[in-house]
UniProtKB/TrEMBL annotation:
Matching Gene3D superfamilies: MetI-like
Domain ABC transmembrane type-1: 138-318
Signal peptide: none
Keyword vocabulary terms for this entry: Cell membrane, Membrane, Transmembrane, Transmembrane helix, Transport
Name of the protein described by the UniProt record: ABC transporter permease subunit
Compartments (UniProt record): Cell membrane
Membrane topology annotation: Multi-pass membrane protein
SUPFAM superfamilies reported in the protein's UniProt record: MetI-like (SSF161098)
Residue spans crossing the bilayer: 24-45, 51-73, 85-105, 144-164, 176-196, 202-223, 244-263, 269-288, 300-319
Family: Belongs to the binding-protein-dependent transport system permease family.
Pfam families hit by this protein: BPD_transp_1
Length: 333
């Protein structure tokens, strides 16, 4: 009886030792320390000049430090989201250190002086006081970019398929594309003023041109490089040209198409600022130009951060769309 009890407790003890023990996320603790350091520097040291929102910035950093401190012991219970946080742990540490250095060099020591540089609370003050104008500018920029980008990639995709499929079309079209492609889209501004009835339509054309050319070139390359054996097999099964284009050529060239779309996205944002300077009354590009003229560089940096975040978000969405559409190629390429 006692031997059986000992064996039972012994097995239970062995099982208890085998249970996973919660570990501490060390990068979370380090991130909490760097964010707390930034909060202490921001609140504890005096500003060289008044920037506004200093106390609020310190509170936000302190709240971030508290969140990271709590996550350091609970992140392993959050599943996929927790694994993502652990993956970016070093970035959270570096971000806290960067904010601390930025805060000291600008607001506390003044080594990077106003108006050319702004501390973090200066940008936060812009978001708090000029949020309504920024939202209007984001909406105007989104309208202009959406019309230009999507029209550009649609025309570029259709033209690229035609260039890659038809030798006759490529004979006339490819030299023109190679001639226009290297020219920056902003160099066509004088022509757009003459051709289009308004600056808004001219701006749409510039964004479409910047985004459509790389899509056209890479789509044409992808269609022309499709393995000829795919066409032979499809023709053997009775496929016509329509089937070969839409069911063979286009799906096989999608990796090249997405590379062109990624390139077009970056080019379109680079041209967007220039396009919105053509008489636009609102938009992030207009906002940058307007505040640069008045040396309001804190507003300029705030708008640049918004543009960077929007572009990064769109790139992320493109990656998701690419992975879904090209999921059938996993294990093949």
């Amino acid at each position: 009886m006692s031997a059986a009890v000992e064996n039972t407790y012994g097995r239970a003890g062995e099982r208890s030792l085998a249970l996973p023990v919660a570990t501490i996320w060390r990068n979370g603790l380090f991130a909490a320390g760097t964010w707390f350091l930034t909060a202490a520097l921001s609140y504890g040291l005096p500003d060289v000049i008044s920037w506004g929102a200093t106390e609020l910035f310190a509170i936000i950093m302190l709240a971030g430090a508290g969140i990271f401190l709590a996550l350091s012991v609970t992140v392993h219970r959050l599943g996929g989201f927790g694994r993502t946080l652990v993956h970016y742990g070093p970035w959270f540490i570096v971000l806290g250190l960067w904010l601390a250095v930025w805060e000291v060099l600008t607001a506390k020591l003044g080594w990077l002086p106003k108006p050319f540089f702004s501390p973090p609370q200066g940008l936060l003050h812009v978001y708090l006081t000029d949020w309504d104008r920024l939202l209007i500018c984001i909406a105007y920029t989104g309208r202009l970019w959406g019309l230009g980008f999507f029209s550009g990639i649609l025309v570029g995709f259709a033209g690229g398929v035609a260039l890659g499929w038809s030798k006759r079309f490529a004979y006339w079209g490819m030299p023109l594309l190679k001639l226009i492609g290297p020219v920056p889209a902003s160099a066509w501004i004088p022509c757009t003023f003459f051709i289009f009835p308004s600056t808004f339509h001219a701006s749409i054309f510039l964004v479409a041109l910047a985004s459509g050319i790389p899509v056209a070139i890479l789509t044409a390359a992808g269609v022309s490089q499709v393995n000829r054996s795919f066409y032979d097999v499809a023709r053997t099964l009775g496929a016509d040209n329509r089937f070969l284009i839409f069911k063979v050529a286009i799906p096989a060239s999608l990796p090249n198409v997405f590379v062109g779309i990624f390139m077009g996205l970056y080019y379109s944002f680079a041209v967007l600022v220039v396009a919105e300077m053509l008489g636009a009354k609102f938009g992030l590009g207009w906002y940058l130009q307007f505040n640069t003229a008045y040396s309001a560089y804190a507003n300029v940096y705030a708008a640049l951060i918004i543009m960077a975040l929007i572009c990064a978000g769109l790139v992320r969405l493109l990656f998701v769309a690419r992975d879904r559409l090209l999921g059938w190629q996993k294990g093949i390429l």
